TrEMBL record:
Pfam families for this protein: Malectin_like, PK_Tyr_Ser-Thr
Name listed for the protein in its UniProt record: Receptor-like protein kinase
Residue ranges that the Swiss-Prot or TrEMBL entry lists as coiled coil: none
Segments forming domain Protein kinase: 500-777
């Protein structure tokens, strides 16, 4: 431990050697490094000492609530400490850290891998809360790691604490939780809340200074050393932050690096704001000697992926590393964040007061969901010519992007899409369209050349089309769409072998029959065999294409398919408890347990949320009903049967349908008549609401079918709504229901009634439905009465999208 203290002291001393105005590096008051699950202290690759967990800080019953485990293997690039040990949580588990008042860094270390005792961290989903803030919700470390193209992940948060920091891990339904390492580090007072070097936070949306109060928590989304290499935690200035390179966010720009740079830290920009390694490197546009004005046609641009629906603090770090720029009005540029002008005139030397003084500026920006749930926050720097600067150029040294908690204390976003491709990363420098004589000459040359190419292409395409038509029938019987993930294709003979000649029937329907079977390794499976068909098999392709893009605990797993002439089958995981309707008929007492119902309903909501927002291509199911909800041995629900599903190319696409699809009793009204609005992902929301209401109180299915199909006055939600207004709560089961269970049942009813609002625009999206289901009943308003009789004057001419988007 003494060696460790001396090591840290040497690091802190090494970063105080800046200019005359330098202050000392920050010395943290609180510092905890827990190597979770370890039985001895260990030193990591950077020389930091990770200790065993202090049992005084662990409020939960260790033996019953958690156990420790070792990773079975160590992947390349994964350090031994703290990633090869883990603490696994069976139920809610709380660490309680005694700390001094103030903001604290919380860093959680995750390595999704196979562990001893059969624990598979890859398939875990869980939440993490601290002192009333939700840090992670239904979090998948495996999905996050795959999206980041790494083998391990560190999630960093900043939370205000009075005296005790209570950190709680909550496994999701039918799952476990885990963590490899926990780091708690104190920080300077109001370091990220007071503003930049000038104590101001510029509000990009309104240009009115923004203030952050002492009850705000943050998540570090990005911390980038622009133009430089990774700065490790021990080379930071006392808070053990990691600064990652910006290479993943585009190519281009000119990297400027100054060896032995003399950096004069000041009282306004202390040495702990950012280490020398950050200020000594930068990216600029570069000076074009032939025609410097060409830079006026370009931007220096970065794209940073964030979660939609949150406010962000964007901190930009600047230091003039170029020796030629040593005075004011020599390099002046504008800053744009999210395509909005954030600061019109940025002159680093004028602002910092000297050519060797670093400076940092804070901005506030809100990111909406109009571009999806995981949009890119764009940062542009553009030379400003109107001041007559010496150089038309821009420069940036460092970026920090922090998410602020929502009004209910939530910081958790959705799990990222692991399929995202780096090929889509935009170029760092984005040229603008220029005008000049050269472009006119180029157009004149290209016109005859282009015409010749177009004519030749047309002739070749026509010949290929004719040849393709001749082979179309044969090819169609032996091909299938290209799926996003590799799938095993079975022959029909193999399906017969798996199912022992289709001897064990699990269920039947209009589509065909589901059989039980076993793979060669003994794994039980369900095999859906569709009725013989000579048609194109679009429903089959829909189902396989949809399921091949999904990977979620609440979505049934596709294992393979058969596409052999008219023989079509789907092989997926076997679930012990069958469909929800079958389980309900067999287990009357259990299905009337409010806690069980709530867990099933919440799992279904999370599955639909994943289909709508977690996949790269939005999937609308169109047939949510009890028969299509399967339950495993732990009653974890899984959405199945994607035969009617539709894939939307755009996140917010309006769905074009020529047929009414779904099951009577669960079909949204807009699928019957467009007077209610246009068909979209909100149709699944309606079906989900009907399902929840049926689970909690509608006992007469014939009544449901009659009322929805005929829109009669006996529409069954009417009596549920009436009971809600009167406080009768006749949907509650039994006399032994607790007060908490009554609140849970009432919450399900309120959420269900919101979901079945006739107008799609009045229904909440599925991500909001999950929040409502997980939140407090007191936070929910009672929705309007959902009547099937509505005036067309109440239906907006456009829903959430434009007519052009509907056409697409």
């Amino acid at each position: 431990m003494i060696c460790y203290v001396l090591f840290v002291f040497s690091i802190l001393c090494s970063v105080t050697g800046g200019g005359e105005g330098a202050t000392v590096a920050y010395n943290p008051t609180d510092l905890f490094l827990f190597n979770c699950g370890s039985t001895s202290d260990n030193v990591d690759d950077n020389g930091r000492n990770w200790t065993v967990e202090n049992r005084k800080f662990m409020l939960s019953n260790l033996d019953n609530a958690s156990f420790s485990s070792d990773a079975l293997y160590q992947k390349t690039g994964v350090p031994q400490v703290p990633y090869m040990k883990a603490r696994i949580f069976r139920s809610d588990f709380t660490y309680s850290f005694p700390v001094s008042p103030g903001w604290k860094f919380i860093r959680l270390y995750f390595y999704p891998n196979q562990y001893n005792f059969g624990f598979d961290a890859v398939n875990t989903f869980f939440s993490v809360t601290v002192n009333g803030f939700t840090l992670l919700q239904n979090f998948s470390a495996d999905i996050t790691v795959k999206a980041s193209k790494t083998e391990s992940i560190i999630k960093e948060f900043i939370v205000p604490v009075n005296q005790t920091l209570n950190l709680t891990f909550k496994p999701s339904l039918s799952s476990l939780a885990f963590v490899n390492g926990i780091e708690i580090v104190s920080m300077p007072d109001r370091f990220y809340s007071k503003g930049g070097f000038d104590d101001k936070i510029i509000n990009v949306d309104s240009f009115v200074d923004f203030e952050i109060d002492n009850s705000t928590a943050f998540e570090t989304v990005h911390r980038r050393n622009i133009g430089g290499q990774m700065v490790s935690d021990v080379r930071d200035s006392g808070m053990f932050r990691q600064w990652l390179p910006d290479d993943d966010f585009g190519n281009g720009g000119v990297v400027v690096s100054v060896l032995n740079a003399k950096i004069n830290y000041t009282d306004k920009t202390p040495v702990y704001v950012a280490p020398e390694d950050v200020y000594a490197t930068s990216r600029s546009m570069g000076v074009i000697n032939k025609d410097p004005s060409l830079n006026l046609q370009r931007n220096l641009t970065w794209y940073f992926t964030v979660d939609a629906g949150y406010t962000y603090l964007v901190r930009l770090h600047f230091f003039e590393t170029t020796l030629d720029v040593n005075g004011i009005n020599q390099r002046v540029f504008s800053i744009f964040i999210g395509k909005q002008e954030a600061k019109r005139e940025m002159d680093v030397i004028r602002l910092s007061g000297g050519s060797q003084n670093p400076v940092y500026i804070d901005f506030r920006v809100f990111v909406g969901s109009e571009n999806g749930m995981r949009p890119d926050l764009r940062l542009d720097l553009h030379p400003l010519a109107e001041t007559g600067p010496l150089f038309y150029d821009a420069i940036l040294n460092g970026v920090e992007i922090l998410k602020l908690n929502s009004s209910d204390g939530n910081l958790a976003g959705t799990n990222p899409d692991p399929i995202l491709s780096s090929d889509l990363t935009p170029s760092l420098i984005s040229p603008r369209v220029g005008k000049g004589n050269n472009s006119h000459i180029l157009v004149i040359i290209l016109i005859p050349v282009g015409s010749t190419i177009v004519l030749a292409t047309f002739i070749v395409a026509l010949m290929l089309s004719m040849r393709q038509m001749k082979r179309k029938k044969k090819r169609k019987e032996n091909s299938i769409v290209t799926f996003k993930v590799p799938l095993k294709q079975y022959t029909y003979a193999e399906l017969k072998k798996i199912t022992k000649s289709f001897s064990y029937t699990l269920g039947k329907g209009g589509f065909g029959t589901v059989y039980g079977g076993s793979l060669s390794d003994g794994r039980k499976v369900a095999v859906k065999v569709l009725k013989d068909s000579n048609a194109s098999g679009q429903d089959f392709i829909n189902e396989v294409a949809s399921m091949s893009q999904t990977s979620h605990v609440n979505i049934v797993s596709l294992l393979g398919f058969c596409y052999e002439g008219s023989k079509r089958g789907i092989v997926y995981e076997f679930l012990e408890n069958g469909s929800l309707d079958q389980f309900a008929s067999r287990n009357k007492s259990l299905i009337q347990d409010v806690t069980t119902l709530y867990g099933i309903a919440l799992g279904i909501a999370r599955g639909l949320e994943y289909l709508h927002y977690g996949c790269k291509t939005r999937i609308v199911h169109f047939d949510i009903k009890p028969q299509n909800i399967l339950l495993d041995g732990n009653l974890c629900p899984k959405v199945s049967d994607f035969g009617l599903a539709k894939l939307c190319e755009k996140r917010e696409s309006i769905v074009s349908l020529i047929d009414t699809r779904g099951t009577i009793g669960y079909i949204a009204p807009e699928l019957f008549s467009r007077m209610y609005g246009r068909v979209s992902h909100k149709s699944d929301v309606y079906s989900y609401g009907m399902l929840v209401l049926q689970m909690i109180g509608a006992k007469d299915k014939e009544l449901v079918e009659a009322t929805v199909s005929n829109a009669s006055s006996s529409y069954f939600p009417d009596w549920i709504y009436k009971n809600l207004e009167n406080g009768e709560e006749t949907w509650i089961f039994g006399d032994e229901v607790t007060k908490a269970e009554k609140a849970t049942a009432k919450k399900m009813v309120v959420v269900g009634l919101w979901c079945i609002q006739p107008c799609p625009s009045n229904r909440p999206p599925m991500n909001r439905v999950v929040e409502m289901m997980e939140g407090s009943l007191d936070a929910l308003e009672v929705p309007p009465k959902p009547s099937m009789y509505i005036s067309t004057r109440l239906i907006p001419e456009t829903s959430s999208l434009s007519d052009s988007e509907e056409a697409e």
